[in-house]
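Marked as duplicate of an earlier ticket. Keeping the data here for the record.
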Amino acid sequence: NAPLSNQQILDKLFQSQIHKKTNLEPPCKTIDVPFSLSHLKKRLEQLSKSHESGAERVCLINCLTSYNGWIVASDRKLMLLNPFRVEEALLFRRLMENHIFQTETLDAPIALTNSLLGGPQYIDCLCKMQQKCTTLNGITYFTDPRLVFNGFKIQLIPGASTAEHHLEIEEMARCLPFYGISDLREILNAILNKNAQSVHLCRPLKVINYLKGEAVRLTRQLPLRFSREDIEDTMLRMQQQLGKDCRSCIHGRTFLHHLANIPEID
């Protein structure tokens, strides 16, 4: 073999020194830090919504495990937050807005007349509600959510003239004791006298009490301990969905209990 040139000898020596130096250096220490980009984006969106809504700023401090509550600061006050009461109110609101009662076919349909409902204004109100013809013989079923969600399946059977049209309840919710005509009248009363356009504004008293019981039952199934992220999400939903006026659970107990005032610093 041809002898190495001076340059080749130098290159070989330098490469040897670099290899030795690399082997002598201690390995670089690394620490795994949990991080979620999607969680960060979600938190930024929540903070942005809270800022835009002008909601009262509530600062979460820490958990008070002996009371299953959380210490929070707001408006120079230290308070104890009961998350179960908040979740109970949120569940009740969601049930009032979205719960649909399952109906069962009655042994005999109930014919709806002016005398049974208490006046022609109720029949007129009913006939103006949303309907859909689903049968070949012209029978029309009422599809208005204010009726359907409250557990009433009502049909309109056409007659020879408008005056001979026949209204009757074909199916009805059976999970509510003594549920019937008086509750349908409550729904129609809310529409006639209060211009109630949403389902939650048309709930009869029996339905409201039933949904309160459901909210309590579902709240009792929640875990006994909440994470910080869970509480932050609960507080955000409290501000967005319940507003400033609702600050107590369905039993009238407040979400926040005042503990102490935070002194001002000069």
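See parent ticket for discussion. Strands lie at 59-64, 69-74, 77-81, 103-112, 131-133, 140-142, 152-157, 166-173, 256-261.
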